[in-house]
Amino acid sequence: MSVLQQERIVFVGAVLILAAVVLLPFATLVAELAGSLVGGEAGAAFELLGSTRLWGLLGSSLLRAAVVTVAALAVGVPLGLVVARTDTPGRRLALVLHVLPGLLPPYLLALGWFHLFGRQGMLGSEASARLLFGESGAVAVLVLAFAPVATALCVLGVWGMDASLEEAARVVARPPRVLTRIVLPAAAPGVALAALLIFALALSEIGVPMFLRVETYPAAVFARLAGIDYAPGEAVALVLPLALLALGLLAAERRLAASRDYAVLGLRGAARPPLPLGRWRAAAAAGCAVAALLAVAPLVALAGVARAGGGFGELSRWAGGSVTVSLTCAAAAATASVGLGIPLAYALARQRPHARLPDALAVLGFVTPAAVLGVGLIQTWNRASLAWVYGSLAIVVLGFVARYAAVAIRTCASLFASASPHLEESASVAGAGYLRRMRRILIPLHARGLLAAWLLVLAFCLRDLESAVLVYPAGREPLTVRIFTLEANGPEPVVAALACAQVGLVAGVLGLLSILIWKGVRR
Amino acid sequence: MNRVAAGWRRRPARSAGTLAILLVGCRGPECDVVAYTSVDQVFSEPVFLAFEAETGRHVCAVFDTEETKSTGVLNRLLAEAGRPRADLFWSGDPIRPFVAIDRALVEPYDSPAAAGIPPPFKAAEGTWTGLAARARVLLVNTKRLGERERPRSIRDLADPRFHGEAAIANPLFGTTTVHVAALASRWGEQEARVFLDRLRENEVQIASSNGEVRRLVVSGEVVVGLADTDDAHEAITSGAPVEIVYPDQEPGGLGTLVLPTAVVRIRGGPHPEAARRLIDHLLSPPVEAYLARHGAHMPLHPGVQTPLDVRGVHEIHAMQVDYAAVAKTLERIRPWLRRWVGL
Lengths: 523, 343
Known about the structure:
The complex is a heterodimer of chains A (about 525) and B (about 350). Chain A is globular. Chain A folds into two domains: about 1-40 and about 315-523, MetI-like fold; about 40-270 and about 280-305, MetI-like fold, CATH 1.10.3720.10. Chain A is built from 26 helices and no strands. Helix content of chain A is about 75%, strand content about 0%. Chain A starts with a helix and ends with a helix. Chain A has about 525 residues and is mainly α. Chain B has helices at about 5-10, 10-25, 40-55, 75-80, 95-100, 140-145, 175-185, 190-200, 210-220, 230-235, 270-280, 285-295, 325-340, and strands at about 35, 60-65, 90, 105, 130-140, 165-170, 205, 225-230, 240-245, 260-265. Chain B is α/β, with parallel strands linked by helices. Chain B contains 13 helices and ten strands. In chain B, strands 1, 2, 3, 4, 5, 6, 7, 8, 9 and 10 form a ten-stranded mixed beta sheet that branches.
């Protein structure tokens, strides 16, 4: 078998698996929509798309997502630069605290802000409540929830840049100029990816806008699946504009990132000395402190509610086995996503023909409202012959992979693109096939980066609520689902304590694994 | 080459083994009976645990989250219609079971434990049986109300004295949907639409769930909210300055809407015998007593002891409704209800 054949077989296999996970549920629903149209039962489905009200809702939702994206980048990118490459005091602590809110479903953060700035909140007044409940509050909560994505990807992009570029620039330019003219452009692919992720996350978010009385387009999709009637065909019709939007986003992101080489997650420049900020150091430290404070404020509020009501003492009783379920599913999904992502990302990075197709498919899975994906998963996998999948946590893992494979593919693609192809070419000349080059060169060479990608997907899966809630097997709910099923009438201190436990769990797992990886690096 | 990288080369078998263990870990415990419920987990889970302790049979449950944060277990039941995974559905209201009944997903079961349940709260043919009811009440923040006259009727939500200071849950979800359908059933659809339009003119806040209505009233964001008795009870026990008003209690008035929870057996469920036993357990007086004590639910069996602050079904002037008719009304009003919400 030729080298090219090997690569094609592996690529096609990975594409087929991705299609089974992402496209099949979507296709099942589209087929249902088509069937109902033929039967003349669902003319309403496409009539919906003629509704000016819904297009207005889509417009306002897009605008909100755009504002959130710009603001989150405005917060996250400068912070990422400062944290990753300067001598600002307390920057590492600031980074750790800043990313904590990213580990919670945003709705719980909104709850934390409510405990702070609601009319009778710890710092609340009528004016603060008026600001919180409305468009401004929704945007602010979402910005603070998603800014850590921008910060993290910017930091990883900066750490992964070629150190020699920065060193050369430092000879002729002052640190602020080096940061803005050399370091920032090097992180551009990571920032573009962050923009894509944040926009998609902000657009699909339902919990925060509804909690803060803001109407949103995904709620219209959701109403076809969770409201007074069950109309998956109509939900799919409403998803079609979002699918087109996903493709548009993908094209825009490609245009932004195309002129740069991918340099995210390589961690090749981690050992460089930090850039001295001089007189800007105090201002940068103040900025870091503000970012950290804003990040922990809602968590402190939740912890305060939990502590005051004795919620922490009740944790083990209320959490049940949900922590184990969360960890098992997230680890399996992260492993599967990265495993699937490696051949697809390699093809993308090396600009192979048709490599953009699975990438677009994965992005479609990321931006499709999770409720639609969930119903599609049920209708695809709930069959007698597939009971071993649908009746077990494997269905949750599939849901996670469908939703977050995009994260794995893009980060792995960044890794492979950042490396010179010369090593592979040499190996190829020496007779090494595709699989052998993967196993002996690419994977070992990028082991740290691949583990970082695995951690990133793990983090997304551990904080996921929407994908799991519709398909989890009876009696085996992840921690996020348990928090939300208890949120209705469960004791408020317990719900707050569980939210704190969720942060602790994800932070603990990520921290521990990061240390292990770092120790591996140092040895 | 670093240690991590070397690990990838040296230990592929170990890595694969780890993954295999993870995937094997995806297998869950054996389920003796599978229950889907939209009754709040905090109340329903202990009931299932008591059944497990009594019978030694393991109950696997899927609980609903607050209305707008999930797609709801009923819709999961519908999505799974081709191959049911649930043995029974314990609904938080008596209307949604009709959706399952209309789609032929329900197997009638005339439980002997339902003998004491009054006829209005169960189907004669055994398709659904009610238990442990809740009432739709006005929850009032007395501190924020001040000297203003207390609300006494559901219509007071549209009264200008509560302009911008009243809240209801989104009527596309949960018991609020049922409430609107019940009003349309009693008043006629036209009058119900006028009432909803007046609510909008009065800038009533639309919360995403009854739990959030409770939170808004407790925190003083609004003066009055429409919620279920269990939400109201939770607010009272939190020590907040709130009181419960059973609306429209004047003689000849509309009355307060009473909504029993309701249980149905799913046709083709994997554990039919255990499902019958669990339904018998749910319909027993001790379960109603438990739900009365812990969730302020109103027992339907006569003679079940309730706490002093929980009124019995017969102690209030209840709205006269035929739940089957309300379910049909709900089918009709869906389009304009969705338009009213703007979705």
